[in-house]
Amino acid sequence: MKHLLGVGDLTDGEIGSVLEGAKRMHRLQDERIKKLPDLKGRTVVNLFFEDSTRTRSSFEIAAKWLSADAINMSARGSSVSKGESLRDTLLTLDAMGVDAIVMRHPGSGTVVQAANWVRASMVNAGDGTHEHPTQALLDAHAMLRHFEARGLGDLSGKCVAITGDLLHSRVVRSNVLLLGRLGAKVVLVAPPTLLPPGVATWGAELAGDLDEVIADVDVAMMLRVQRERMQHGYFPSEREYIEAFGLTVARLAKLKPTAAIAHPGPMNRGLEISSAAADDPRSIVLDQVSAGVAVRMSVLHHLLAG
Ligand code: NCD
User: Fold this and answer.
1) pTM score, two decimals?
2) Which of 18, 24, 100, 280 gives a 20 to 30 Å CA spacing to 235?
3) Residue of the CA atom closest to atom 3 of ligand 1
């Protein structure tokens, strides 16, 4: 494995070994000294052209816990703001001899393109509405931990409903690809205006509102309404959106006691997810955050220490 550009490029063996590795890396979170020597002397650059809290800091922590040197760069404060092209920026970093570049960019496909320009390993940390492979891997890792802790086995045969702004989401694309490979049934729930073109060919089922599926799901994954990517009204009002698609207090009561509530963050509390749902004992939202460090450690390990 040279790059991690999308779930679509991973073999079953690679998916299995990244998730196995994440289990091993996760144990480090209980240690007082969180340091493995595996990537000593290697350099990882985080190059972010879009805002991020979780993804960027967890990649940085992952690199540091593996003893790599980690550097953070954002478009603001780099020569991109002086008009330098993306290619020149990447070639400049590459010329310094960095080993991996973790990149987030608003353009779909930009990270795949960047991988053709550099010698370093490229990791896609979210490119436009295309893919966000480490998010899907960490979601799977967090779900597996949820089911394993309850003696409910793995993801095979489990029903995962992904609800919300699917049109602007790279998380949904990566998750549909990965969950299908792991044997889960995926149901996509969104208003017609927020369904991506071609969604019918993805191999997932579709539902018109959350009430159709809520009682049957093993995981209710809620996605953020991405207001910053919306130019016009995609639904009549927030109240109507919540009525059909929000994980409200009323819907919480219908959710199975063993189900998990997931959200990649950042959450719009009171819109796609009620505060009661975000803080419910079934919520794995913060477990997804810890899973993010473990999975990103495993990914960097596969790319740089393999
Ligand atoms: C997601 C992203 O940036 O694609 N967040 C994340 O990485 N945790 C989802 C979002 O922005 O809503």
Assistant:
1) 0.97
2) 280
3) 126
